[in-house]
Design brief:
The complex is a heterotrimer.
Chain A lengths: L7 H27 L7 H19 L2 H25 L4 H19 L13 E3 L9 H5 L1 E3 H19 L1 H11 L1 H6 L4 H27 L11 H11 L4 H23 L6 H21 L21
Antiparallel strand pairs in A: 1-2
Chain B lengths: L1 E5 L5 H25 L4 H14 L3 H27 L7 H18 L8 H27 L3 H20 L36 H19 L1 H11 L1 H6 L4 H25 L13 H11 L4 H25 L3 H18 L1 H4 E5 L6
Antiparallel strand pairs in B: 1-2
Helix pairs in contact in B: 1-2, 1-13, 2-3, 2-12, 3-7, 3-8, 3-10, 3-11, 3-12, 4-5, 4-6, 4-10, 4-11, 5-6, 5-10, 7-8, 7-10, 7-12, 11-12, 12-13
Chain C lengths: L1 H21 L3 E6 L9 H16 L3 E6 L6 H12 L4 E4 L5 H10 L4 E5 L8 E6 L1 H15 L4 E6 L4 H17 L4 E6 L6 H13 L4 E4 L5 H9 L3 E4 L12 E7 L2 H13 L6 E4 L6 E4 L7 H15 L10 E2 L5 E3 L7 H5 L15
Parallel strand pairs in C: 1-2, 1-3, 3-4, 4-5, 5-11, 6-7, 6-8, 8-9, 9-10
Antiparallel strand pairs in C: 10-12, 13-14
Helix pairs in contact in C: 2-9, 3-4, 5-6, 5-10, 7-8
Classes of the chains: A mainly alpha, B mainly alpha, C alpha/beta.
């Protein structure tokens, strides 16, 4: 075993890339859940974003337009979920799961003619000056734009929830929709906006897979990343920076175990391949054990149906 | 403008009418989709919804409906108990896998015994395996307040790794020329979950599913525990005043759903699937979540929902094979069916009024 | 027991219906483990199906089912096709072995062809490709091309077919470059583009400048391209979109000739159960074009190796070869028998690490 072949700084750089799809999807889902809605259809929205982004990027030759299309595609698909759960008051868990099935099928149909085609290349942005810092520069400041965008998005969501009035309203809706309604806020409208935001983020996360991380289109290519994103939200106790922590932790262990394998470690491979899941559980247990239960942070109205005149 | 007015109690009429209405809407929307894909819509719809039950080869498909529906129903019944009480076991797939590994493992350990006791022992082992796997999130939740959604979901992936591992090592068929996969239970009569009535597709797993439906019905309608589950779901605070011990309820609900999922896995591996292989699980644990909610978390509803889901799978496969519809179109159709079922449900609980929206 | 009696009626009905059909069209069925849009394994089988259609035109009707899980679902899909009047059905994944045998027993008049398995019956043939022959050519190129002497190998599951490929590639890389080292990463999946990308990146970051893969997506190629000076090889399909670099060559599964021959045999009434394990010689394994990124002399050597394997003059597993623990496997000039190859679960001498189990 030659662990010295693992360069921790380079490892960090690949962790950032590997974690970005789940990070994007998770921060979107966190906002949705903060508004009191549980959308289990993340996987369906991600894969739809992946195909929309890929198709449009190939057709226009521009990855940026591809990403915009992916966000749009994810948001449109999430509208379906929003309409059913907010206006027809359907069960959120079941509707979300149905959305996943629907999205997987839809994306496969859309992508039929796009198998085996190469995506236009997304260039890394070398942030001037910063990228030239020895060692750190290469790791932290030489990625594609979406990596920075995802981190900026975390900061933006954090600031939005903490400092803005709109953020306060969103949280209020998620804690008690009846009280928010009584105060004159349009619960359904706010939730629809949150759901669309979640859809757009999931779409971006999917497009990151199909346009940068892999990059190609194949059916079912997100292979469960949406589920991991859902778990990360729970892991984060609905806090933005913890979403970043959770996504990087999960992505980090995933990348690390592959690196350990490549370095020829003696730990049996089956344990290594389980390790991202086990370590995520372990860290969550440690965090929840050291905290009072009241502070677990799930929005009180999460998953509950809201009907104004009842 | 349309407004919704909550009914004082769910409409009995609409409870019965909404599912067929949703199916009809799905047929229309699906027909349009299929026409768009260049297929004859009427033929496609007939192949999916009619032929499996009444068509030329229905003698075969009817039995297969039960084979496909049984694990879904068995798992969904267990899940519904927890879901009613607000306990979210998302990891039935993992419990299903571990149940299958344990059940099959015990059976294979005694290969090639002819002792008929082996089969009940395997059922027990399967249930215990699933139970133990579900006890991990349950215990963590009770002890540390760890969220069971995350733990149960993560354990699915751990179980999948275990499955890949045991099927290429511990449980590998010694006569299998080094290929992964266990012995086939078909060649091991004492441990084989064979059809009891072949034409009807009835094996012990189907029997167990029916027993579970009855058990859940009685539990929820008649038993104190069922009352506690319902109360906790409606209002955790009220439940505490009613003397419900939340920890006990978590352990019971997660444990039961785990045991049923584990049993389902064992019946499947020893019967229809026949052997442990790297990807022997095929998502029943996730599909069962949909089945549970489609059945409105009611035992009888779950029974019907399970059969309907099975029909779309079997009819969908037939449409692929006979009409060349892509698998993706079938998935899309299933998604639409679920959407319509969930959407029209609104009619059960609400009255639609035409007129002005009341002032907000 | 009563299984037979129930389906006896069905079989009769099918053979009657089949008799009516047989005049004009032969129905050919395919069971796929993945979606036809996977760009790899299933994609190539489906190309074989399309080739059958193109070759026979109106004389055949092909049907297929994608994403069929192994186990009970596979049995149903097979029964469905047999009931639907298929004369021959190809089941294209190892996991369909027992279902194929079971269903075949109920439909003695239908021919079944199972890919990569070892169980046969009067109406069940097996077929597979000697991918390891292609791996030998890849190993040769890899050994010549590597500057860092580190070659990364992305394995799917630790099963004989994958182990065989690793051994074959290693033996031939070592032959031309004694300093070469292999790092194997097990992805525990056949197809997960994101994970494959991560695995490739991990290998590259640890100094590998050649990536071999036994998983189906092009993600490792993209990782190699991004890294710059790394080469890779197409797997299952040509992956020509990454030529001339990083993809310098590929192993292509070409099922079309076999499928056409077997369907023809059914039409002629000459079909019989047999085991086919074809390689480069029969055209079942193709070496995709070796690009100009490979120096001309290396390319010529690789092509010569390919041709000598094709003609049968050279076998990739020819002694002297030792097992990983140093014990003798094949003596000088001895050639591995197919039985050992089929169940290969050991590394050859020089490979490091353990096969997980």
């Amino acid at each position: 075993m030659d662990l010295s072949s693992i360069n921790p700084l380079i490892l960090l750089a690949s962790i950032m890339v590997a974690s970005t799809p789940i990070l994007l999807a998770a921060i979107g889902e966190m906002v949705v859940e903060k508004s009191g809605v549980l959308n289990l259809g993340v996987e369906g929205m991600m894969i739809t974003g992946a195909v929309c982004g890929f198709v449009i990027a190939v057709e226009t030759g521009s990855p940026v337009i591809g990403f915009v299309a992916a966000a749009f595609g994810g948001a449109v698909l999430s509208l379906l979920f929003g309409f059913l759960t907010q206006y027809l008051l359907s069960n959120q868990v079941a509707t979300g799961l149905a959305l996943t099935l629907f999205g997987l099928g839809l994306s496969a149909l859309i992508g039929q003619g796009y198998v085996g085609i190469k995506a236009p290349v997304t260039n890394d942005v070398n942030i001037p000056l910063l990228a030239d810092i020895p060692v750190i520069g290469r790791i932290v400041f030489q990625h594609d734009l979406m990596v920075y965008f995802s981190i900026a998005l975390i900061a933006a969501v954090w600031a939005f929830l903490k400092f803005t009035r709109a953020g306060l309203i969103l949280r209020a809706v998620g804690e008690s929709h009846d009280a928010a309604h009584a105060l004159g806020y349009q619960v359904v409208l706010i939730r629809m906006l949150a759901i669309m935001f979640g859809g757009a983020c999931a779409g971006l996360g999917g497009a990151y897979v199909s346009l940068i991380r892999v990059p190609q289109w194949t059916e079912g290519m997100t292979s469960g990343a949406g589920w991991i994103a859902l778990a990360i939200v729970v892991f984060a106790s609905w806090r933005p920076w913890r979403v970043l922590l959770g996504a990087y932790l999960f992505g980090g262990v995933t990348v690390l175990q592959l690196n350990l394998q490549a370095a020829g470690t003696t730990i049996p491979v089956e344990y290594l391949s389980m390790s991202p899941y086990l370590i995520t559980i372990l860290v969550l247990v440690i965090m929840s054990a050291s905290r009072s239960r009241a502070a677990l942070g799930a929005p009180a109205a999460l998953g509950r149906v809201f009907h104004a005149s009842s | 403008m349309l407004t919704l007015e909550k009914r004082p109690s769910p409409s009995r009429l609409w409870t019965l009418l909404t599912p067929p209405l949703a199916v009809v809407l799905t047929m229309v929307a699906g027909g349009i989709l299929f026409a768009f894909l260049g297929k004859n819509p009427i033929e496609a719809i007939r192949t999916i919804f009619w032929d499996p039950v009444f068509g030329e080869f229905a003698f075969y498909y009817r039995g297969q409906l039960l084979v496909k529906a049984a694990p879904l129903i068995l798992i969904a019944i267990g899940l519904s108990l927890g879901f009613r009480a607000g306990i979210w076991n998302i990891g039935a797939e993992g419990q299903y896998i571990v149940g299958a590994i344990c059940g099959a493992g015990i059976g294979l350990a005694f290969y090639p015994t002819e002792n008929p006791a082996i089969f009940p022992v395997m059922i027990l082992a399967g249930a215990l395996g699933g139970w133990a796997w579900a006890m991990i999130p349950a215990t963590l939740k009770v002890m540390f307040g760890t969220n069971e959604i995350l733990v149960s979901l993560m354990l699915v992936y751990v179980a999948e790794s275990m499955l890949a591992s045991v099927s290429s090592s511990l449980l590998r068929n010694p006569d299998g020329q080094g290929f992964p996969g266990s012995r086939n239970f078909r060649d091991y009569p004492a441990a084989h979950n064979d059809y009891l009535i072949e034409s009807a597709g009835i094996h012990w797993g189907v029997v167990a599913a029916f027993i579970a439906v009855i058990f859940a019905y009685v539990l929820l309608a008649r038993h104190m525990l069922g009352f506690q589950i319902r109360v906790t779901g409606q209002s955790p605070r009220a439940a505490r005043f009613a003397g419900v011990n939340p920890s006990r309820l978590i352990l019971f609900c997660l444990g039961t759903s785990g045991a049923l999922a584990g049993m389902a896995g064992m019946f499947e591996v020893a019967g229809p699937a026949g052997q442990i292989t790297i990807d022997f699980n095929s998502g029943y644990g996730f599909t069962a979540i949909i089945v549970a909610f489609l059945g409105r978390l009611h035992p009888v509803g779950i029974l019907l929902a399970g059969l309907l889901m099975a029909l779309t799978y079997i009819g969908g496969e037939a449409a692929q094979a006979t009409l060349g519809l892509p698998a993706a179109a079938i998935q899309l159709l299933q998604g639409m069916l679920l959407f319509f079922l969930l959407a029209v449900d609104v009619l059960t609980n609400f009255r639609i009024r035409f007129g002005k929206t009341e002032a907000a | 027991m009563n299984r037979r009696s129930i389906l006896a009626g069905a079989v009769l009905a099918v053979s009657l219906a089949g008799a009516g059909f047989a005049q004009d069209k032969t129905k050919v069925g395919f069971i796929y483990v993945g979606p036809i849009g996977d760009g790899g394994w299933t994609y190539e089988h489906d190309k074989g199906r399309l080739a059958v259609e193109a070759h026979f035109g109106d004389k055949v009707e092909t049907v297929y089912q994608e994403n069929v899980p192994e186990g009970a679902d596979a049995e149903r899909a097979l029964t469905q096709m047999a009931l639907g009047g298929a004369s021959i059905i190809f089941t294209t994944s190892f996991g369909y072995m027992d279902p194929t045998i079971n269903v075949a027993a109920k439909f003695p008049n239908v021919k079944f062809e199972h890919a990569t398995g070892f169980k046969r019956a009067d109406n069940v043939s097996t077929y597979s490709a000697r991918f390891y022959e292609g791996r030998a050519v890849q190993g040769h190129i890899a050994g010549k091309m590597t500057k860092s002497n580190k070659i990364g190998y992305i394995g799917s599951f630790p099963i004989p077919e994958v182990v065989r490929g690793i051994n074959s590639a290693y033996i031939h890389a070592k032959k031309v470059n004694p300093d070469v080292e292999f790092s194997v990463v097990w992805a525990y999946t056949w197809f997960d583009p994101a994970k494959e990308a991560d695995a490739a990146t991990a290998l590259i970051e640890q100094g590998a400048d050649v990536i071999l893969q036994h998983t189906d997506s092009t993600a490792p190629h993209a990782a190699a391209e991004k890294a710059g000076n790394v080469i890779a090889f197409g797997q299952a399909s040509d992956m020509a979109e990454y030529a001339p670099r990083p993809r310098v060559s590929s192993i292509i599964d070409n099922w079309a000739p076999y499928y056409i021959a077997r369907v023809q045999a059914v039409m002629d009434g000459t079909w019989e159960s047999k085991d086919t394990w074809d390689g480069i010689g029969a055209g079942m394994v193709e070496i995709g074009e070796i690009t100009d990124a490979v120096p001309a002399d290396v390319k010529a050597e690789a092509e010569a190796l390919r041709d000598s394997i094709a003609s049968g003059e050279y076998h990739p597993f020819t002694g002297p070869l030792n097992k990983q623990d140093g014990s003798v496997w094949l003596a000088e000039g001895e050639v591995a028998d197919d039985g050992t190859l089929a169940g290969m679960n050991f590394y050859v001498e020089g490979l490091t690490g353990d096969i997980p189990n």
